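RETRY 2/3 - previous attempt timed out on the joint model. Re-submitting the same 870-residue input unchanged.
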Amino acid sequence: MEEILRLALKKADAADVFYSESDGVLARNSLDRVEACKSSRESGYGLRVVHKGRTGFAYFTRVEDAKRAVDEAVRTAKLLPKENLALPSPSRPKPVKSFDRRVTKVDEDSAVDMLLAMVNGASEKALPVKGEVSAGTSTHRIINSEGVDLESKETTFFAYEEAKKGKSLSYDEHSSSRITSTQPIGFKAGEWASLGNGAKPVAFKGRICLSVEALSSFFASAVLEQFNGESARRKKTTWANSLNKRVMHPRINVVEDPHIPWAQPTAAFDDEGRPTRKKSLIRNGVLKKFLYDSRTAALSKAKPTGSGFRPSYSVAPETSVTNIVLNPSEKCNAFANSGLFVRELMGFHNMNSVTGDFALTITLGFTLKNGEFDKPVRGSILRGNIFSALKDNPMFDKKALTRDWFTSPRMCFDAEVVK
Amino acid sequence: MLDLLLKHVGAPADFVEIRAARAWSTHISVRDKAIESLVAGAREGIGVRVLYKGAWGFAVSNSVSDIGSLVDRAIKLARASSVRPIAAKLAPVEPHVAKARIKPKHHPKDMHIDEKARRCVELSKRTLADSKVHASDVSYGDAWGEWCYANSEGSAIEYHPVRSVFTAAAFVKGDTLMRASDRDALLCGTEILNKKEVLVDRVITKAKRLLKSELPPKGSMPVVVDPRMAGVFAHEAVGHACEADAVLNKCSILGNRMNTLIGSRCVTIVDDPTLPRMYGSYPFDAEGTKAQRKVLVDKGRLCAFLHSRETAAKLGQKPTGNARAESVLAFPLVRMSNTFFEAGDHSREELFAPIKRGVYIEGMKGGVTEPSTGFFQFAAECGRLIENGELTKPLRDITVVGNIVDTLKLIEACGKQWKAGVPGTCGKAGQGVPVSDGGPHIRIKKMLVGG
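RETRY 2/3 succeeded.
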């Protein structure tokens, strides 16, 4: 990598080289059978150059293509506007827990064993339909012309099962860098499918209790983009002019925490080599921070927030969030009264991510009576606006739950359901 | 590359297939008046799939030189799968030795990246020139390369695809912020950038109309959908439920309805990967089966499922050439290609005339369906209220929800004029493949409108 950087610096004023390598094994089921086992290996380089204040990018997979990539990156830089991107200086990021040695020992035989345990778990309550267990290791290294040289090694473990009972289909999943027992994941999928059996559409107006899974999908579909500093600069988001203004209810606090042990997005440094840190995004309902990578920070004359991540070596760093924690200052018992609990919704990619308007189909919900699930619900449309729901008077359950990158209690708000 | 593959397909297993590809691509993204990113890259990949005692093993790498070790690895993986195997068998197909090539008018490699970028900047500036537009996004992408397939039954195929995609989006601000977008994608070269002013102007008009639009009325009412939404309906509601892997997993509501009436007599739905230049077209699928046109629903009667060789063997039917994979690194899955309603015999006026109060749905934002229950939800960017057969108030963010079989039976009439829908990427099991759709205007007696 040092040689690639040296080649780049012959033609550019500054450069960084990112290397990523991943290795993994996967087993998947169809009904109660093993459908296939797969192994994969992928590696590649992303090269970024700064040439006369302009930034160019190229990627390649074979070291012998490095020279061509340098030429390509410099050539594309000449076409781009001046951004005066500043690459990070060396630092000592705080170590994080994201490597579980047990994951590295998962081979095809143990992946199949874990898959079958999950299938057996689902079979206790329903029909297992399809699922997978995967385990992998990835290595990332970033070096730059300022002297940054950082390497991280992470593990990933993912288990997912779908189960069916009658016409009811549900799922459960686990995603982290640590290995976990798979039988309960299958069991949970079967249990949800079983509880949803016989579900019917209902019409309802009143208190909706959203599961953490559903709330995380609202965040992924519309809310997270609001923290993107570049989208705000270009006035593409509803909160673009709302820094230090109230955008959520005063009882809501939202923190981005890249250091949560074993969470999948956890990282000590971003893919530009800048240390990550915990950031308060919403404090008492007030928007406190936008997020930036090096390039978007330069454009906005802001400071980079350690948020430059790459989905792959073939993509230049983009502003991205890691783990989100919603921590309300006031809590209630979400199931205390009657209402409608919504576990699963369908159609998030159809919602209006700019205005926050949504009309989503409930694929698994339950009417609540005396704090208990009463009747299963499916097929009704939940409509409303997520920004209004977070601002008006949302209530939060006492217990926080974590689903992958998102930690929050269940959220209750008033809305309408059409059948 | 094909010669290298053929050297390794004789490995000791019941069936061996190797796919390998080398691809070059360009992606240009313009934000407002400036290029935001410009990436040109090359990549390669190889995937070896073997069947051993009814169990699959699949080993992949992004380095073709790994071929030898991948074959051994795939056999080992198949052995691990054979603990409780799926008992896979393959329906027979004719081995093909073939070469196919997309011949674009202007090959992407012949246009300098500077020129591609310049055209995109021009089009983005055109969007921004409208005083109501305060931000615009324009992007262009192309990809071309070599795809090779060989298997232990004698197939040896080489295919040189070329694809291009153009998208434009405009952000307008009135009382609220609105976004409108459109896209074109074809098996073609840089000619996709020709006459794109028309698409850009359409986006601006649509965005400004959204500012004046209301959310639709809610409840059950008559609906007319335009060809773009008809295409989404054909793809999402019918096509996914016709995928034989869903049928085998007991996850399709159409699973036990073969040769029964599932829709009204005016409903004919087709999946056809052989249409020239369409984004979802291909000459051979990811198992080397020749692509073919299939009528899925003929005058309301369900008459075909979409198959891979494995699903065809299990259901005792013939492979249909619908095993597709996102790349050579991904499992082949049963997927659609270009899926559409056939045109009917009604004029546009005849479709709207009988409706006292209903909704006209234009364009598409997306759709999602649950083949197991038949539930679907589609979203359109815009539309209009229909009052006494006339189009009146503009509407936005229209969502319709329904059940496949109920809705197909409620289709009352299909228009004479057929149009292609919005090409895009269909997602399934974490893989995206290029697809396209289309149809005529369609009148549906009633649908649940959510807004």
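The longest helix of chain B spans residues 113-128. Closing ticket.
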